[in-house]
Amino acid sequence: MKLDIDTVRTTFRDAFLAHGMSRAQAESPAGVFLDAELAGKPSHGAYHLLGYLDALDEGRINGDADPKAKVRGAVLSIDADEGLAQYALEHHLDALVDLAHAQGVAVAAVGNTYTTGELGWYPRLFSRHGLVSLTATNSPALVALSATGERVVGTNPMAFGVPGAMVIDQAVTPEAFLKVRQRAERGEAIPEGWAVDGEGRPTTDAAVAVEEGAMLPNGGRRGGNLALILETLAMLAGGESSLAAAGKGKASPSVGLFCLVMDPSFFGEGSLERLVGHLELLRERYEVYIPGRGHVEPGELDIDDGTWSEVLAAL
Asked: Which InterPro entries does this UniProt record tie to the protein (predicted)?
């Protein structure tokens, strides 16, 4: 369905308000989910918003969160108060940006938060302030790292951004869990090697992977190593481990979000221009795909009819 961007933003915000979220906090996820749609990631847009509304109704998201922050050296520690990481970060963004511009490097460590949504949103946010960034998070356990097939870590995405040039956003698994869940809802299979069933046996049944099995990391142990790195960064930021993070029920998962932001001017004159120029060379001369350049133009937003109907029904 073709939709006006302002209509989508307002509808997203009103959906959160209808489910008891404060107006101050509701503005943040409305913009986040709209941005995911504009970035061509519908699995993390309106579709994901519906999951947030369910979590809000269940009490897993604090709709009236009041995030608090404190600074120690180059680290801005934020307690999200069981609310949304996006809101907590935006609420204290000026302090983080000031730290980075004053010292060259700063870290936002967001703990006690609901799962963090589309991770590419964070480097896009930091890029608007001229900052190169590396972002990591975890989630309730969804991924097996051994032959037992037990879920021990989340899909643990990471994102990296260079202003005006690149945004990388990827999980440690072959595909994001939300997209596997969408396949399960449509009754579609998944490729072999993506997941195992509850007994640790390979499966191509998306529903089995979602309900009783586990996803597998890219590249076997190498992908598992990356999952462990991102898990420890998220825990360093104040989050629960993926094993301890509640995946169901009324409790907040209380995961962590680690954001390292860098002012490129501290790394030498023309540092950012050098990075941007190199990435452009790779793209133009060597036909290398540089992620994060695509963005839907205003007026071209198209949301699945069924998903949009569910959003409207939630008002």
From this structure: Mal/L-sulf/L-lact_DH-like_ah, Mal/L-sulf/L-lact_DH-like_NADP, Mal/L-sulfo/L-lacto_DH-like_sf, Malate/L-lactate_DH-like
